[in-house]
Specification:
Helix content is 13%, strand content 26%. With 293 residues, it is an alpha+beta fold. Strands 1, 2, 3, 4, 5, 6, 7, 8 and 9 form a 9-stranded mixed beta sheet that branches.
Length: 293
Amino acid sequence: MEVIRSSPEISSFVPLAEHQSRTPSSFYSGPPVLYHHSQRCKIVILERELLATPALNALRGQDAVNNSAASQDQQDGDEKEVAISGVDSWVTSDKFFLFSPTASTGVSIPYPSISLHALQRLRVPDTDAEVQGLYMQVAIPGAPSEDDEEECITMTVVLPTDATLQEPIDSETDTPTQQLYNAVSACSNLHPDPVEQGDEDEEDGPKFISAEEHDGVFQLGNGDLPPPVAGSSGWITADNMDQFFDADGNWIAAGEPPSFPLGPGAGTVRAREGENGVEENGDEDETKWRKTD
């Protein structure tokens, strides 16, 4: 979440209807797409979370200073909600923006920081009417909680009562708030969470780790570590086993043989079965195994 001092400009974006009406000259450059824009919104948020987030609290302008001074003795368990009026919202393919023209300040929120968004029925503070709003959980980087997870704040964006549908309209049952939700969903899909190490699907193929790291046993793991065998240029696999061991399992490659165990069956050559299931590797006078139906 970053503070911005000037309001986004309509001319800085390509309207969604225009974007969908033609094939862009490039999918990797050009101005961001404006999916949704609403003026005079209200932001409903717990006051204790607002006070803990100076960037959002600044949307209240001079009220932020007055309320901060009056709320110093407020307990953390207080669930008092406040509503910030007169905030413009911008849902673009780049970021989600909130800006207060009165306070001349706003925030830009990266979509990966929005961990959850949903439609919500709520009562705006100091009113009796129940309205629909866009509920969001926004992660605050650098503020880990007790369980080492990112701290999140929750807030709800409520559109003005006279808000109208914006083009394009996907369904006759859409409401302005539903359109806002759809816009945030679409833009969030454009910014998937980065894949962290260890999150890859193991079905993509085995990855090996250094034998020294796991008591000399080859196991699945990180494939970025150096080769486990001194003198080899890569990993010992079924495809290059003959470069390191002969048919009897003896080390034939340059350098010292590995001193760690290679695991059950390493270096063992299985004899080929001949006709009637008889193994072709063995003396005539030894017991020979046959298949049984």
